[in-house]
Amino acid sequence: MHQSKMDFFCKLGYGKQDICKVLENLGQEALEDDVLKELIRMGSKPQALESQAQPSQLKLVARGSCSAAAGPKWLGGDGSDSCDSLRPIVIDGSNVAMSHGNKEVFSCWGIQLAVDWFRDRGHTYIKVFVPLWRKEPPRQDSPIADQHILEELEKQSILVYTPSRKVKGKRVVCYDDRYIVKVAYERDGVIVSNDHYRDLQNENPEWKWFIEQRLLMYSFVSNRFMPPDDPLGRHGPTLSNFLSKKPVLPDKTWQPCPYGKKCTYGNKCKFYHPERQHQAQLSVADELRAKTMVPLALGKEEERCQCSP
């Protein structure tokens, strides 16, 4: 039991010294939720976060790149998390699997599709949380499809089982949503789920803001994992900026004007007009003023010529 807890929290990135200290204070039979709360209260952070907090030695690299290794590039930068360009991804495994199985079957293939989508995009930190009892043989009231995928993802250190146990024949399951939100909040990442976690939003105001701003919803279309292009609505960031730690704002001068040739802003328009490349981009009002000023100026010059000797 002690070794299983050690392995579980080591997978989350906590140091063995901190875990042993908490287990000595709370006892070996302490629940995983209590151990996690105590680790957070002590100020202990996953080792990956501590290594990021330490100042790194300066390196001379080619301009526009973060590392010597070539990889997929998004938004003009390297796609690896080591360059702090892409956010960590925390996937609600139960939500994704049940969504892919039409809420009838726990489809592990749906989890694999979501992991592959983020992996192909360049994300290196991807964690999937699934209750431990899903590792058991499937029952008639809770069917599971492609269960071997869970074992493969666990070997790749992508899937993490949230603890559960049986007490007097009854299963005691820890709240896996709490693990998902906590890890995503600590890593400053993105939660992939169609759940709104309203109970956790009411529990912590910081979590409420985080869930509202970092929740990525999705759909499955013909076995294709598809998150929305506008995760926070029409006026929010694009999907690329939402998943990036360093969002890149588009240059408005190269965005086509939504009004096209009907635009009346002229040179005051901040958008791009391909039809005005070789024209003076004056507004309609300015053009009218210019046309009326020309005959007035000509008339004054004629009067001056007649009055002069």
UniProtKB/TrEMBL annotation:
Q: What domain of life is recorded for the organism?
A: Eukaryota
Q: Could you say which residue ranges form the zinc fingers (C3H1-type)?
A: 251-276
- What PROSITE patterns does this protein map onto? ZF_C3H1
Q: Which Pfam families does this chain map to?
A: RNase_Zc3h12a (PF11977), UBA_6 (PF18039)
| Alphabetic keyword roster | Endonuclease, Hydrolase, Magnesium, Metal-binding, Nuclease, Zinc, Zinc-finger
Which GO MF term does the entry hold, naming one? Answer: hydrolase activity
Location of the C3H1-type domain: 251-276
Its Gene Ontology cellular component terms are: cytoplasmic ribonucleoprotein granule; nucleus
**What's the family?**
Belongs to the ZC3H12 family.
Protein name, per record: ZC12D ribonuclease
Its gene name is: Zc3h12d
